[in-house]
Amino acid sequence: MRSDAERNRAQILDAARALLVDGADLSLSQVARAAGVGQGTLYRHFADRDALIGAVYTAEIDDLALLARQEASGDDAVAGLRRWLARLADYAVVKRGVMTAVSASTWSDVSSTTHGRLGEAVTALLDAGRAAGEFREGIDARDVILMTWFLTQVTADEWDDRVPRLLDVLVDGLRRGS
């Protein structure tokens, strides 16, 4: 892809992500305006609204997987997991927007291609923490993913206060001797 095409695609994804986070009713014309591109440019990259939303979701998972690999190779497994969980909380806001913006069948298609990568990301973080003697044995990626579902229940007005506290409880519960 040419550099200008890559830049346009990134701008479109960023604009769509911001609109999803804001809870806006996502229309392609609105995304094109927010991205500063024409409708034709948007349609060259994304055939329809569902393709765009799927790409936003996939990009979020890709970012989470990359961050997990980086954090798993760091020196402080606990701090790395905390940073990753904070990014996961940001992702939860996007996911909520995606889930409300697409049909059930589209959500099923999009999520089926990404859940494995999210599990691999969490496994890398847990393995790094266990290797460092920080995390307890017997906890797997699905356990952590299930415990993070609380993020879907936290309302916007309590987010800033409640989410950091609950993430601390989660991390503390994963540590040895907890």
Automatic annotation (TrEMBL):
PROSITE patterns in UniProt: HTH_TETR_2
Leader sequence segment: none
SUPFAM superfamilies: Homeodomain-like (SSF46689), Tetracyclin repressor-like, C-terminal domain (SSF48498)
DNA-binding region: 27-46
InterPro entries per record: Homeodomain-like_sf, HTH-type_TetR-like_transc_reg, HTH_TetR, Tet_transcr_reg_TetR-rel_C_sf, TetR_SbtR-like_C
Keyword Protease: no
Residues of the HTH tetR-type domain: 6-64
Keyword terms, alphabetized: DNA-binding, Transcription, Transcription regulation
Keyword hit for Transcription: yes
Taxonomy, superkingdom: Bacteria
Pfam families: TetR_C_43 (PF21597), TetR_N (PF00440)
Record PANTHER family: HTH-TYPE TRANSCRIPTIONAL REGULATOR BETI, HTH-TYPE TRANSCRIPTIONAL REGULATOR RUTR
Record's protein name: Transcriptional regulator, TetR family
